[in-house]
Write a structure and sequence with these properties.
This is histidine kinase. Its EC number is 2.7.13.3. This protein has three helices and four strands. The chain starts with a helix and ends in a 12-residue tail after the last helix. With 116 residues, the protein is of the alpha+beta class. It has a single domain, classed as Histidine kinase-like ATPase, C-terminal domain (Heat Shock Protein 90, 2-Layer Sandwich). A four-stranded antiparallel beta sheet has the order 1-2-4-3. The longest helix has 11 residues.
C-alpha cells in the first residue's frame, strides 16, 4: 500500500486530495487509491505494472519498480492490482485481496481518524 500511496503523492499536484477507500466486497477486501494527477497514458494501463517501466514523461524519480512490486504482492496473496483513469482526471489503483475465513466473520470496525 505504501508504494501506491507514494506513487499517488508523486504524481498529484501539490494541495490536491488523494482518496483512499477500503470495503469488503463478497469474499474480498478492495482497497482503492485515487489521485488527481495526469492519469495514465491511453493503452498503458497494463504496461505500468511491468518492471522498470515509467510512462508519461516520468519526470518524477524512481526506478519503475513500485507498481510491479504492488502487483506481485497482491498476486502472491491470491489477489489483483489494476489501474484505470478516472473520468474526472487522475488515476485509480485498485487492490483486491481474498479474505480469510476468520476475517470475514470479524466485527472489527474502522473509524475515521482512528489510530492503532
Amino acid at each position: 500500500m505504501l508504494n501506491l500511496l507514494e506513487n499517488a503523492a508523486k504524481y498529484t499536484p501539490p494541495g490536491s486530495p488523494i482518496d483512499v477507500s477500503a470495503r469488503v466486497l463478497g469474499a474480498n477486501m478492495v482497497v482503492e487509491v485515487a489521485d488527481r494527477g495526469e492519469g495514465i497514458p491511453a493503452g498503458q494501463e497494463e504496461r505500468i505494472f511491468d518492471k522498470f517501466v515509467r510512462v508519461g514523461g516520468a519526470r518524477q524519480g524512481g526506478f519503475g519498480l513500485g507498481l510491479a512490486i504492488c502487483r506481485a504482492i497482491a498476486v502472491a496473496h491470491g489477489g489483483t492490482c489494476v489501474a484505470q483513469n478516472r473520468p474526472q482526471g487522475g488515476a485509480v489503483f485498485r487492490v483486491t485481496l481474498p479474505l480469510g475465513e476468520d476475517t470475514r466473520t470479524s466485527d472489527a470496525t474502522v473509524r475515521q481518524g482512528a489510530t492503532t
